[in-house]
UniProtKB/TrEMBL annotation:
One of its GO terms (molecular function) is carbon-oxygen lyase activity, acting on polysaccharides. Residues 311-439 form the Right handed beta helix domain. It is found in: Secreted. Residues 8-47 form the DUF1565 domain. Residues 80-202 form the Glycoside hydrolase 120 insertion domain. It comes from Cellulomonas persica. This is Right handed beta helix domain-containing protein. GO terms for cellular component: extracellular region. Keywords: Secreted, Signal. Its main location: secreted.
Amino acid sequence: MPDIHVTVDGSDSAQGTPDAPLRTISRAARLARPGDTVVVHEGEYREWVRPARGGLSDERRITYTAAPGEHVVVKGSERVTGWEPDGGTVWRVRIPNTLFGEFNPFVERVEGDWAIYEPGAPRKHLADVYLDGRSFYEVHSRAEVHDPVRRDAVLDVWTGRTVPTHEPEQTVFVWYAEVDEDGTTVWANFHGADPNDALVEVNVRRSVFYPDRHHLDWITVRGFELAHAATPWAPPTADQPGLIGPNWAKGWIIEDNLIHDAKCSAVSLGKEASTGDNYSSQRGDKPGYQYQLESVFAARHIGWDREHIGSHVVRRNTIVDCGQTGVVGHLGCVFSTIEDNHIHRIALKREFFGHEIAGIKLHAAIDTQIRHNRIHDASLGIWLDWQTQGTRVSRNLLYDNNRDLFVEVSHGPYVVDHNVLASAASVEVVAQGGAYVSNLVGGTVRLEPVPDRSTPYHVPHSTQVAGYAVVEGGDDRWVGNLFLGGDVDDAYAPGGGFHRAARHGTAGYDEHPTTSEEYRDGLDPRLGDHARYRGRPLPVQLRDNVYANGAEPFRREVRPQVLEADDEVQVTLADEGDEVFLEITLPEGLELDGASPVDGAALGFAHFPDAAFEHPDGSVLRADVDLVGTVKSRDGSYPAGPLADLRAGLGRVRVW
């Protein structure tokens, strides 16, 4: 079918041809049918695109694309003029509430399950003010607008460490608002800029490209700049709208976009409201944990399965400057692929805090593949929470985060292979059933059991629930990784439980058995059915890892290579903008022990699901592609770490 064309000087009463283009993407979305392509031309479009229908299959998609070589911007904000001086460098403006309609971001608050505020602390709002594209900070009085406090450091709540503020000079650009029946008055400190001459925008719309109905499948969104959405807090027990997302559908492709300035979440592959919508914080009758369990069954009742939900692709996007997550998703992320994205500056403003913040934060990432992403300058890089089964985290580059990878209350099988995890807090394993293969672990490994929260596991490659278990810890495999030592104080504040549980290396597994037979022999038959298993860590398999700079091995590891104190390994990530280089210096004459590529047959079965380590199609998993794409020979021997070709001396390899 002919393409539907949109230009900034078109008309929505036109035919949508190249000679008679439409004016809005929204009008094109109402006209588009399966197989159509909507071509949007150069310019700025301020609208929330809500597709009226989806495609019919992967071959009969509806595609929305920026015209080749043209810069197309779609914003959820509106420009605001008419500012009046209010003393000093502060200006004020009154905005009629008709601009916002039924959704006023200056009224709507950042709140919900697992959003955490100090007792009595005022809530933040979904609004934002932008000066020439830079977002301001919300304060809670006019006095604070006139006398803003610069923040040079801030507490990272998870690690307990005080860390430098990202762009501290921006923290004095602040706003405050009051809303009455007819209008919204905003005060903002522009520090010498004239807001009537500069570009000043405010959030108006909740989303930028997001359907308001479910099951609009097989849609592609390609090549846009998408910005400025007043997205709400998105925990796993709520509706999870993003700046862009499918809203409970199947088969979307979101690719080659620049996505930025979502108040909370940029790309949502999440759940919808009927399966729960912040009931714990609203009702106060049951914990969020219980409502999250219920949401899994509620989702099954409305068709949460491979045939109807998930199988999305999020690739080659740059996602930046978002308050909660770059990519979020509970349930709706199943069977999806997230690859080749550059995700950074996530949750660094730290205007609000909660337990659902990361560059990528997924629940129930069943058979989801997270590969070759670059994630840095985030409070947490990747957080996989609940039902991490069939999930693979492969060939990713994580650095300069407060924490890199957190896997929580899951039972596997999941695989983490050929990644660079270079931040001071590299890996947090609050789960079981994982396989960590050929990674560079530059910081700490923290282990923690969770005996008080039983979570589901599934029939392999399915959303069907097979059972529940608590996390006693273990059932992990660590093969061919390169660990670097360091100071735990650089990862976590001294004195806290996280600090005590963190090590450089794998010595945290020292009390675990190494075989199923040893595990069973350690059970006390005099105890009751479940009591004999309580507190008993599961067996682990560790072999062929290399420990440098003081990192310590599991005491019963097979063939560990522990380097001498004089054999210091130096690792630097050189971030040069569009390119990143991994610089590794190995002492001259040092040879790292080699091992063959790992496949699923060597990894056995995850204990509770009794499931093999497989590809999503059920074939035997092979972890044989290194960080830069080199395919390892099945019969070859390769050094520990993410690079197949790692030699003594100074090596400099482009990894992005």
